[in-house]
Queue: 2 jobs
Job 1
Amino acid sequence: MPVKRELIPSDAVPSELILQHCSDILMHPNMQVEASCKQHGTTSVLAHSAAVTAAALIVARDLRIPVDVRALARAALLHDYFLYDWHVGSPENKLHAFTHPYRAARNAMRDHALTKHERFIVRTHMFPMVPVPPTSREAWIVCLVDKAIATHETLKGFARRDARRHTS
Ligand SMILES: [Fe+2]
Ligand SMILES: [Fe+2]
């Protein structure tokens, strides 16, 4: 099926687009698992995924990039749907950076029946750690926005730890 793309209106609100396209995902019980697992610093996987989704929609809206809004929003929200705590020391978790896009895509298929394109966006978001390039514009947006948000969350975590160390 060809991808249907459109410009996101300049007055569109990301949180409203997320509710329009992803309310079933947000209501799923596994979102509680995402809320309880840390991603970067003190940020939960759910907060990280919501931030990536909102930022991806803002990038497409403000740079006037026609996108498949539904695929962009759903795949961004599910891009880290791996559903375990990767900070726990285990042999599998050592490979987390390379393997979690595949785990996320499998879980998302099981719980939310992703389209082929949405699955592709989830699987390629860790490029170049995952050696398959994100060849659609939606996949590139999620891949790049994820790195920017992850860097920001990680640095925020370092800054917090540093501030604690110097005040105690
Ligand atoms: Fe990820
Ligand atoms: Fe991520």
Job 2
Amino acid sequence: MIPWQLGMQGNAAMYSNAHVWMQTFDCCGAAAEALHRDFLRRLLGVRMSTANHMVLAELGRLPLQVHFWQQILRYHHRTIALDNVRLVKLAMVDGFALHQTAVKDSWQHYLGDFLHGHLGQQQLFHNFDVASVIERAKHQHAFEYFADVQHSSLMLYRTMQPEYKSAEYLSVVKCASNRRLISRFRTGCHGLRVDTGRWADGVHLDRTDRLCLVCKSLDCVEDEQHFVFDCPAYSHIRSQHLDLLQHCCTIADFMILCEPNACAGFLWECFACRKQILSV
Ligand SMILES: [Zn+2]
């Protein structure tokens, strides 16, 4: 079993009985989301500061909240199907009535807002289609991933991950260290100067000042494109991987068109060469 399949089982445990602890949604839900994302970061081997959208999209995962809602909506449906004299049903009806008059920070309040947002009208106590509501929530999350313009690191990443699904290399590359190398490279946690120039030595360099120290360029930023295709320091490595690189000219091509194990081998060689040059 591969690690993220284990993660799926962990997910089921985390959102079990969500309809019970949903009453403390703000604290429990947020903490569970953070735990979930940190777990995924450790699976991928990326930095703990890697953007949330990137971590979830790399594995094709959704926020736990979507699964919480699914549990809660099913609970809602099971409860409204009960006889009107059943205590649990009476308690839920009273809970919603109370929410409308006084309690604004309750799970009933969140449920009302959620249904209003996804169905366009209040659907409490109606037998709506849970699957279609959850499907809308999934599409909404994917839409937010593609529309996020707050994180500049997502601009390049989205060219490598144009669809919201688990990245192919995760199932193709069996070697864990090779998989982590690709994960770090795709998510920008690779240690090139375009990455380290943001925070190394406590100094934030403008992007245009994060120049390549390997070829000592006076005007080339050491970014992914320069590293894979342009830096003259790795020309001898590229010449040994012509089959890999001949059909691509962008990082997106490199990650989408090239065989992932071969990509990992090429990256290892370049990073080893880089380390050797910079250590002299
Ligand atoms: Zn260079």
